[in-house]
Amino acid sequence: HPRIPKGAPPGTFGWPVLGETLDYLNLRYKSGAATFFNERRKKYGVDVFRTHVFFSPTVVIAGADAHKLLQNDGYRSLTFGHFSTMKDLFGEKSLILTEADQHKRMRKAVMGSMNWKVLKSHIPTLEELSIETLRSWEGKEVSASEEFAKFTFYSILGLLLSLKPSPHTEILRRDFLVLAKYGVSLPLKISGTNYSRALQARRRLLDGLKKVLDDRRKNGNPSEDVLDHLMQPREITGSDSHLSDEEIVDNIIFFIFAGYETTSTALARIMQLLADHPHELNLVKAEQKRILQELGKENFLTWEKVKSMHYTSMVINEALRLSNLGTEVILRTAKHDIAFHGYTIPRGWNIMIDKTATDNNPEIFKEPLKFKPARFEENLPPYVFTPFGGGVRICAGMDFANLEMLVFIHTLVNNYSWRLTQKNNDELEFTGVVQKPKNGIPIIVQRLSE
Ligand code: HEM
Questions:
Q1: pTM of this structure
Q2: Among 73, 221, 256, 427, which residue's CB has the most CB atoms within a 10 Å radius?
């Protein structure tokens, strides 16, 4: 075990080498990382403690001050804490693995490519995809989790590459699923292991995406998308924001990964929560019906109308709060000693920011386990609700994720009713980044009569 410097927070490093990793994983897979954190906070009587997980000494911090540190730090004290496997899976040029100036440069290029004009121009595509998706569910039992995984994959693929569902994109999707499913496994690069399967899938994805880039160079693209922006020549972007093909492809793979299971789980949970809460569902319906009437029958949704979906946005926030999605932990490493609540977080140690502590805190959210979207009418104290993280690494797809969810909900409630075919038993399943209901949320949707 590493030396424990004076002033380090209370806690234990557990077993030699493994530390408390098994305990952490065990509790995380059973009931969520929050259980591991809560047990220790209670035991030590403080909101900051040390542990040793994934071969690194780690300090877990929580509460508004933890989020404030994350939001205001810039690149001063925190650097992104990552596992060695991420480089194999996402490529070292992906946003998530770059640091300081490199990150800043890449982020500028990426955010420029997902500007509001590009998002706005994708509203009709999202609406069309929502209509097709719902049509394919009509009248039979489907798993909302699985179906939304398809929906979010294709909505990101549309935004990034203007690709629609086809046999060709289904091959990409299958490889992508292998990467996402087996990527978070023991990094044994021996043939036949899950990890080597994930690496093979990544290689095929890289080849497929390089072909998309070649095709784009030869034939152009009729509509504006993220790839168009990322591929702009140096004379337009300026050398500072210009990305190489390798950087573009690594980022596209990471974007799909970052945006797919988070958004799809959120949507599945929203359908589940609304089915269980008829009063809140009626409020969403009333809002969406009003918007539909304002639009007139033949018109597609507009950016302005999406922006006016206040109640539905609160439903999304409440679902994100309750679901503790892949965001239960934000991981960083301390670049130098950091003072926090009277303790010192030593240089080189990892820092986990536990978001569940604020999301489930009854002093911030009264009756925290209840679904009460209207709570977001009231002003929250700063730094307590951060479903998309904060600071220099705040979610790059935040606006798109919200847009995608709002467009789907609009299409759903205006055209369909649905019911859950199994009672919600709260049993959760934990994948690499997301916790979600184990039963996959089986539902039946029915078209509303005209
Ligand atoms: C409900 C859906 C989503 C949630 C809850 C979510 C949450 C988050 C959080 C908490 C972070 C920060 C992680 C950290 O600080 O270490 C993050 C980062 C990121 N997200 Fe999302 N996300 C969602 C959807 C999306 C979508 C749709 C995309 C892409 C289209 C996306 C792309 C990214 C990227 C690229 C980053 C890394 C940013 C960076 O390191 O600069 N996310 N997301």
A1: 0.94
A2: 256
Q: Does 62 map to a domain?
A: yes
Ligand 1, pocket-test mutation among 388, 405, 408, 435, most atoms within 8 A of CB: 388
Helix (H, G, I), strand (E, B) or coil at 433: coil
- Name the pairing type of β-strands 56-62 and 350-354: parallel
Buried b (16+ CB within 10 A) or exposed e, 321-335: bbbbbbbbbbbbbbb
Ligand 1 center to 121 CA (angstroms): 21
In the chain, how many domains are there? 1
Please check whether residue 331 lies inside any domain of the structure. Answer: yes
Inside any domain, residue 370: no
- Report the CATH number that the domain containing residue 34 is assigned in CATH: 3.30.43.20
Query: For residue 351, what are the β-bridge partners?
Result: 59, 332
Residue range 335-372, pLDDT digits in tens: 999 999 999 999 999 999 998 899 999 999 999 999 99
For residue 395, report the distance from its CA to the centre of ligand 1, in Å: 3
pLDDT digits over 131-185, tens only?
999 999 998 999 999 999 999 999 999 999 999 999 999 999 999 988 887 766 6
